[in-house]
Amino acid sequence: MLLGKVIGTVVSTQKEEQLKGFKFYIVEQVDANNHLTGDTIVAVDSVGSGIGEIVLYATGSSARQTKITENKPVDAVIVAIVDTWEVEGEVKYKKD
After folding, report:
1. Cβ(30)–Cβ(3) under 8 Å?
2. pLDDT tens-digit series, residues 18-74
3. 0.85 exceeded by the pTM?
4. What are the C-alpha distances in Å from 25 to residues 46, 53, 90, 92?
5. Which domains are seen in the chain, by residue range?
6. Separation CA 42–CA 28 (nearest Å)
């Protein structure tokens, strides 16, 4: 899993039947010190996240392991909304 920040949305009116009803977000990867890396990916939201939130996301075959993405043509999925994390005893992020 990777840390990321939801920075945008993707709207697609024409899509594969199996993807109908999914919410797509643009997620920018975040490093362990809470710095944006510039690497972005489009991910399906499985947990009700929103713009500006820090999330955990999975990619590759792991992205097809959630209840809503099982056997779907998905390569990235948001699996958790982060409340806090720390590195070597220092809090790097805490949700407001």
Report:
1. yes
2. 999 999 999 999 999 999 999 999 999 999 999 999 999 999 999 998 889 999 999
3. yes
4. 11, 11, 29, 23
5. 2-94 (2.40.50.220)
6. 9
